[in-house]
Amino acid sequence: MPKGPLGIFAGQGPLPLTVARAARDEGRDVFIIALKGETDPSVEEFPHRWVKWGELANTLNFYKDNNVHDLVLIGPVARPSLSDIRPDWMAIKFLPRLIKLLRQGDDGLLSGLVNYMEDEHGLRIVPAEAVNTDLLAPAGLLTNRKLSEQDEADLTRAIEVVETMGRLDIGQGAVVCRGIAIALEASEGTDNMLLRVGTLDSALRGSTTERAGLLLKLPKPEQDRRVDLPTIGATTIENAAAAGLAGVVVQEGGALIVDLKNTVHRANKLGLFVLSLAKPE
Q: Which CATH architecture has domain 136-277?
C-alpha cells in the first residue's frame, strides 16, 4: 500500500530530484516547493511551485491543498539576509521568531524551522534516507586506495577539529593536511571550501602528483538528523582531487552519498580514497 503524498522543499543540487524519483517509484505522489535562484529546474518534472524567500503562506498552502503531511527538506540553500526576504502575511507573523533563529548557527536555525512546521502546521519532517535508503553512507573503505600512516594521522586530527566545530554549531567539515587544519567549512559550503583549498600555496597542501590531506565531514552532535546531514558526491570527489587531497571521509549512517556507485568510480579513477567510519557506539 503506497504511503500518502510527499512534500519536498528543494534546495540546491541533485538530491531533491533523486528523492522525488525514489518516492515516485514507491507509488507516492510528490509535490515540490522550489526556491527561486536555488533549486535546479529539473524538479519541474513533478508538480511544483516556485517561491521566493518569505512566501510562507504560498508554500504551506501548496502542501495543504495537495494533502501533504510528510515533508522532506533536502539540498543546501544559501542563508538569506533579512533584506532578501519579502514576507507575506504569514511570514510577517513568524518574522520575530525568524530573526532570532537567523542569529543562531545552522543547527539552531533548522531546528527552529522544523519545530515551527511540525508544531504549528501539522507537517511531519522525514529524513531523505527514509525515502531513499540507498543514500546513506555504508561502513568501510569504499575505494581501491587505502589510507597511509600520514592519512591516518590527519584523520585523527580532523576528527578532533570537526567534533569541536560541531559542538560550537559552526560547520560539518574540515580539511587537514600533514597534521594542520587548512580549511574549515562554514556558510560557503563544501565545494567552495575545496575550491579555496586549491588556491592555497602548494607548501600547505598536496598536489595532483603527490596527494596529501583529507576532507572529513561529520554530523554535529546535537543536530536533528532528519535535515542537513553531511553530503558528498562525485562533484565533491572531483573538487577534492583538484585541491590535491588524498581522500574524503564520512561516517556510516551519518552522511548521504549522491550516486554511490558513480562517486566511488570517480574516486578510483582519480586516485582518491573514500572511507566511511563505523557508527560510534
A: 3-Layer(aba) Sandwich (3.40)
Backbone φ and ψ of 214, nearest 5°: -150, 155
Contacts of 118 (CB under 8 A, 6+ apart): 124, 125
Domain range list for the chain: 6-132, 136-277
Q: Which three cell numbers stand for residue 280?
A: 560510534
Distance, in Å, from the CA atom of 136 to the CA atom of 249, rounded to the nearest integer, reads 14
Count the alpha carbons within 13 Å of 169 in the hemisphere toward its beta carbon. 13
Q: How far apart are CA 22 and CA 27, in angstroms?
A: 9
Cα within 13 Å of Cα(54), Cβ side: 14
Q: What is the tens place of the pLDDT at every residue in 175-220?
A: 999 999 999 998 788 999 999 999 999 889 999 999 999 999 999 8
The domain defined by 6-132 folds into: Rossmann fold (3.40.50)
Backbone angles phi, psi at 106, to 5 degrees: -60, -40
pLDDT tens digits, residue range 97-145? 888 887 777 777 788 888 888 998 999 999 999 999 899 999 999 999 9
Q: pTM, whole model, 2 decimals?
A: 0.89
